[in-house]
Design a protein that fits this description.
single chain; 361 residues; alpha/beta; 6-stranded mixed sheet; 5-stranded mixed sheet; 13 helices; 50% helix; disordered N terminus
Length: 361
């Protein structure tokens, strides 16, 4: 190679690196200001306040990105009503929403599987399916027609069946009962004659207290005590048949997501995964303390549902799930979930279940 040609190539390489530098620098210095709404009221523990909450997620993303992605968090009713997050993110009114996928049943039935399935998997199993069993990929496939992506960002662990003004002794006691209960479980109860209501968290206590509803499910001991549900009903049924692991959803407008540099996308994904684990850990501590207080100090009667009632709920659950398989996308998600569950159940029987039944002191 001639001396002149070598000098030309060297100068071209230097010039190229100099010209490329501002592009890289601009990408790494660009700042994004986003809005995130929630289905839950401002200050709500777990959902809006505390470890793993929406505000904690926003704080982690801001700190991990060194202020390059700032997310302003709005509680239910502050910017939009509680259950309008799906439409707001889809329209690009806000970039994010923090809620539960089963609120969007009317938009796409398959979304329910990404919150909780009655008689479904626990926290460990659900995370296995989502992170390593193709669950998150399916979640995004479900939302692709709507121009959105999603990921898990929290989990309550097993929930409680809920609060009942009257004792439930038989399946017949459910008929005509007015109950706040969302998701697939609501359809199951409806099959057994329950008058199902879907109410935001802030409306549950006054409705239960005034007799607008006869029973209510919310989350678990800590959250339920905070709403004062134990003051309106004393029968607390603990069998978490309907939501053995309840996932919080971070819903993101895909056009906005695609504008984020790859490192900021990674920060959002990893912060969400962190909150998924951290929030569930918080629930274990908070619920154990709250349940003890409810039983010892608040006059609450805590017990599982009768076996015959559980059996009836399981029969109706199978019918509800089977009915949903008429939709091809729901069937695809269902088959994936149940295939993973079958394998996980076999493993759980000789690991977690064996430990709790035979090993734990």
């Amino acid at each position: 190679m001639s001396l002149i040609r070598r000098q030309f190539l060297t100068r071209a390489a230097v010039a190229g690196s100099v010209l490329g530098a501002p592009v890289i620098a601009n990408a790494q210095s660009a700042k994004f200001n986003w809005k995130m709404t929630s289905a839950y009221g401002k200050g709500s523990p777990f959902y809006m306040d505390g470890p793993g909450s929406a505000t904690d997620l926003a704080k982690r993303i801001r700190e991990m990105s060194d202020g390059r992605l700032n997310i302003q968090v709005f509680g239910a009713g502050e910017l939009i009503p509680a259950f309008e997050g799906f439409d707001a993110v889809r329209a690009g009114t806000v970039e994010m929403n923090h809620a539960n996928a089963y609120f969007w049943t009317g938009k796409t039935a398959a979304a329910q599987y990404f919150t909780a399935v009655p008689f479904g998997m626990n926290f460990q199993g659900m995370n296995g399916w989502l992170y390593d069993g193709g669950g998150i990929d399916l979640w995004n496939e479900v939302y692709a027609p709507f121009g959105m992506v999603a990921m898990p960002c929290g989990n309550t662990g097993v929930q409680m069946t809920g609060w009942f003004k009257k004792e439930i002794k038989t399946v017949a006691d459910l008929k005509g009962l007015k109950m706040r209960i969302p998701g697939l479980a609501g359809k199951v109860y409806a099959n057994l004659g329950v008058d199902v209501k879907v109410l935001p968290g802030g409306e549950i206590f006054p409705a239960l207290e005034r007799g607008v509803i006869d029973a209510a499910e919310f989350v678990g001991p800590f959250q339920d005590r905070r709403l004062g549900l134990h003051k309106a009903a004393k029968n607390y049924y603990t069998t978490g048949w309907h939501e053995s692991s309840t996932v919080s959803e971070l819903l993101i407008n895909k056009a906005a997501w695609d504008k984020l540099p790859k490192d900021l996308q990674a920060i959002v994904s990893n912060a969400s995964a962190a909150c998924n684990v951290i929030s569930e850990g918080w629930c274990q501590r908070a619920n154990s303390e709250a349940m003890e207080d409810l039983i010892k100090n608040q006059g609450v009667i805590a017990r599982p549902l009768p076996d015959d009632v559980i059996k009836a709920l399981k029969v109706e659950t199978d019918k509800v799930l089977a009915d949903g398989l008429k939709d091809p996308m729901t069937k695809k998600v269902h088959d994936s979930y149940m295939s993973f569950k079958a394998k996980y159940d076999r493993w759980s029987e000789i690991s977690e279940e064996a430990y709790h039944l035979k090993v734990r002191g």
